[in-house]
């Protein structure tokens, strides 16, 4: 059974979408204009901004280019929002240690930032 704290943890895509929307609105840009420049549909970009879709790295890069922001800046802003929201953060050194203790030969490990 999953406890309530885990069920209510915010998803990374929610924070990414919030930052993208905030940046777009700060620039006074429309969803349609940004979507057109990024070569994505308005509906898809809207769902990304609402945290309902998990965008690929290619889509994120295209939207960031359209907004004139670096992907690194987007991720840094998402990181700050995570801290402000007091979302649980997993320290990578501890995650690596736990994973190393549980790993078997041939296991694949993926870390995301």
Commentary on this structure:
- The chain has 113 residues and is mainly α.
- It has one domain: lambda repressor-like DNA-binding domains (434 Repressor (Amino-terminal Domain)), CATH 1.10.260.
- The chain is 63% helix and 0% strand.
What is the strand content? under 5%
Number of helices: 7
Span from first to last CA? Answer: 27 Å
Q: Please identify the top-level CATH class.
A: Mainly Alpha
CATH superfamily, by name, is lambda repressor-like DNA-binding domains
Mean pLDDT over the full residue set: 82
Shape: elongated
What is the name of the CATH topology?
A: 434 Repressor (Amino-terminal Domain)
What is the total number of structural domains? 1
User: What is the radius of gyration computed over CA atoms, rounded to a whole number of angstroms?
Assistant: 17 Å
Structural class: mainly alpha
According to DSSP, the number of beta strands is 0
Q: Using the 3D structure, state the CATH architecture.
A: Orthogonal Bundle
* Element-by-element helix/strand order: HHHHHHH
Tell me the major beta sheet: none
The share of residues in helices is: 55-70%
Q: In terms of per-residue confidence, which ranges show pLDDT below 50 for 5 or more consecutive residues?
A: none
